[in-house]
Amino acid sequence: MLVKCAKKYKTAPVKVYFLALAAIMVMLATAAFGAPTVGLNPSSLTYGSVFIDTSTPSTQTATISNTGTGNLNVSGITIGGGGGAYRVTSSPAVPFTLAPNQTAAIAVTFDPVAGGTAIGQIRIVSNAANSISVISLNGSGVHWASLAWTASASPEIAFHKVYWASVSGGPYSLIGTPTGTTYVDSHAGLVPGSPDYYVVTAVDNTGAESSHSNQAAALIPAVASHSVSLRWTASASSGVVSNNVYWAPVSGGPYTLIASTTGTTYIDAESGLVGGSAAYFVVTAVDSTGAESSYSSEARALIPTS
To answer: What single string gives the DSSP state of each residue in 202-254?
Structure first.
């Protein structure tokens, strides 16, 4: 009995030792191999209206954070869409690692070269469960013309009136009333490839207005326009009432909804199509209840350079 008791008491601490060691190993494994999670703030960058081809493009910053419990390994940061108007101007060198609760900033510049809406996205590739994270980009390129004139010699001038016309000699429309001798025109009537005509008048303190100045002309440069024609086979289901068309600047998406149509064709001319790059499309079918099918096979279109 004494021997058996001695063996019993000897082995019990050893069991406790191994149990404690196993618990420590589990704790270490959890700390070393926890799951990383990508946090994006904000998840979209909106630039509003930005002048085309200037020395002062618009830059905004988004923050990547690791809100998980394991190291976040970022292996790629790429930009797609937007007609080449977006570029990353500041970020950590890829690849990089963020420990839990660490953050990194990405600065993205919008420098449009064409008028209209430019839709793009940043794709962040990492070892998180959602291996591809997306920051949406949206901005509009605005055409503009810069005017300058010599100040009137009269000390009574209070302000000037700037007039615009789409044809030489007018009739002119009033577009601005600056107090100085410069004005930047960005109104919606500016059309690439078409000349614009301007005259200026001086207005004194009594409201009396001078005659028109000599006419000045400005030509907004024309830019190449692109479009993609899509066609697909109608669904065999009798309940289908429409189709949704989606676009992405990179293969596999994420995709952006660009149109809903009742037919089986669509011409896309608005999704940031840029010469020399590829565009990717998928289509879904929608029934009368609003239920939507899965994506079709992806179609790829290569946009010509001119």
So the answer is: EEETT--BPPP---EEEEPPP-----EEEE-PPPS-TTEEEEEEEEESSTT--
Q: 145-219, superfamily in CATH?
A: Immunoglobulins (2.60.40.10)
Q: What is the pLDDT of residues 263-306, one digit of tens each?
A: 899 988 765 666 667 888 999 998 888 888 999 999 998 877 65
**Residues 249-263 pLDDT 10s:** 888 888 888 888 888
Residues 179-183, mean pLDDT to the nearest whole number: 95
CA-to-CA separations, 103 to 64, 88, 270, in angstroms, rounded: 5, 17, 34
- H-helix or E-strand spanning residue 186: none
Domain spanning 38-142: CATH 2.60.40.10: yes
First to last CA, the chain: 97
Global pTM exceeds 0.70: no
Domain with CATH 2.60.40.10 in the chain: 38-142, 145-219, 228-302
The residue assigned the tokens 């490839």 is 193
- Indicate the CATH number for domain 228-302: 2.60.40.10
- A 10 A CB-CB count for 210 gives 15
d(CA 79, CA 89): 11
Residue 148 to residue 254: CA distance in whole angstroms:
46
| Helix (H), strand (E) counts: the chain | 1, 21
